[in-house]
Amino acid sequence: xxxxxxxxxxxxxxxxxxxxxxxxxxxxxxxxxxxxxxxxxxxxxxxxxxxxxxxxxxxxxxxxxxxxxxxxxxxxxxxxxxxxxxxxxxxxxxxxxxxxxxxxxxxxxxxxxxxxxxxxxxxxxxxxxxxxxxxxxxxxxxxxxxxxxxxxxxxxxxxxxxxxxxxxxxxxxxxxxxxxxxxxxxxxxxxxxxxxxxxxxxxxxxxxxxxxxxxxxxxxxxxxxxxxxxxxxxxxxxxxxxxxxxxxxxxxxxxxxxxxxxxxxxxxxxxxxxxxxxxxxxxxxxxxxxxxxxxxxxxxxxxxxxxxxxxxxxxxxxxxxxxxxxxxxxxxxxxxxxxxxxxxxxxxxxxxxxxxxxxxxxxxxxxxxxxxxxxxxxxxxxxxxxxxxxxxxxxxxxxxxxxxxxxxxxxxxxxxxxxxxxxxxxxxxxxxxxxxxxxxxxxxxxxxxxxxxxxxxxxxxxxxxxxxxxxxxxxxxxxxxxxxxxxxxxxxxxxxxxxxxxxxxxxxxxxxxxxxxxxxxxxxxxxxxxxxxxxxxxxxxxxxxxxxxxxxxxxxxxxxxxxxxxxxxxxxxxxxxxxxxxxxxxxxxxxxxxxxxxxxxxxxxxxxxxxxxxxxxxxxxxxxxxxxxxxxxxxxxxxxxxxxxxxxxxxxxxxxxxxxxxxxxxxxxxxxxxxxxxxxxxxxxxxxxxxxxxxxx
Length: 697
Ligand code: GDP
Description:
alpha/beta
């Protein structure tokens, strides 16, 4: 039978860890009693050690789930707080201190907490028992205790004294049982006293006849009976002897000296030893009788869990470790997939697009805004003009344009462009699933990849700048490159033309038709002419009076938004005409002829230069930035995301993902239920069909 209780106590704590629902609960003994009824003294007498918090203001503030584990033959006695991970605590005064700290940690405003403290005590001198110590009932709320404290404690006790628990109601012999809050509470939930044991303390404080009368229980009968005890600490403690031992002797002495009332003929239950035995018997039979019900309940829960596990996960098991490893692998794979976008041809195309913009800027700055540029087309059209005898003006212009392009900070711009691409890629990976569930890991991922990039940007930019340096002095263009540059330039100009035309179309639509736009543009041009006229006059010192108000008045003929549109339209048409002119040039015989005509066709030359710059930049960015990053990144994932985690953090990480958390929870529930079921089945052979023990005859 001993073995049964022991097993069932184990099963009980496993069930508690599965869930807190009442359906899966094996009975425990719940100790209730009013303050100073001697509750702590009784518990300590059972354990044989002083270990509970003491002190005036030191009522128990949290339930203590006390599991006693009988360890026959063991040399040492020790306690364990499984939730705290302190290991074995062999010093009982240290257990007492820990309990005091845990109780004091409950804020004064709350006074009591529902959160139980799990304490296990292993000793050859304790019986296998589970006891729950609850805060003592208080009669009068003292000044510094909140008004609701009494209710709070009563509620807490009520929750614990429900079925199937056994109630140990502690009452003092010198207080009328009618006034015992413990008995009153137990009667509410167990009117027949079928699962209530009375403990009458302080038997030494009343005459033995009166004491015997109380524990005979004729006034308030309890099916499981009363046990009378004396647990007073003597105060005068002889050296080397424990308080518990002294108290025990006092008890033996007391009952020994009143054999007439309490001797074996009296059929009364007295003494701490009797109490322990009684508790074991009652717990055993209560557990045994719960066994059938609990086995059925566990079986049902298990079937449900197994069914869900099959349906939801097709019996696929996960571990936190495997989830973390898979997540990291997926991250690397995802990254690898994206690296296609960073192969050299892709990078080169990106850089070329950036340089094309630069080329257009240079052309605008040096050619399109130059009123003489149309001349260039005219000169080029004249077949007699040789490139070498063209006016030096155009030669200088071409050199200026080329140098503007090559010295525009290509190294930096190109490197930053690629680095920004990488950064955007990492950011998008970090903000997608499953990193939405792992904000801290996402943060770390972003941090270390940005750092990796930051470390390389300077070096790479310098290297690229260094390698394009020769182009700053001279660029040789091969005929093949020239033709390619020409096609590119034509394409670029056609795209630019298209953009301008689209913009014009859009403006035309917005202002209400081409007639209207033509009027608007004429008006704007008129304004501009007047404006420049005035500027000229002002510069030459001729002052006019009263001119401008007239002009301002004019401004109100059209809404300002349309005037602005018209200004843009003027710019677009100007741009279009120069683009058309140059497009014609690019398609002319002269420009098609070859690189010796560079001075006539700056667009082609600049395009060819841009192409060389893009090629060189892409090559060195690949070596200095990309290769390095692609090599380092997966390793950094391992060292900064993966190996950094300890077991607890791995579980934490996995559980951040709600789908995995549900999976793990169900799997763990199923496993535990299976284990409990196995244990319950192994008990079948041990199981004696014991009914709850009636009061001893
Ligand atoms: P709790 O508040 O219910 O935990 O009560 P305690 O166990 O702290 O006991 C309250 C007081 O009653 C203490 O001073 C104990 O020494 C005293 N006491 C407890 N049991 C006995 C007993 O059997 N006889 C006598 N005379 N005093 C006792």
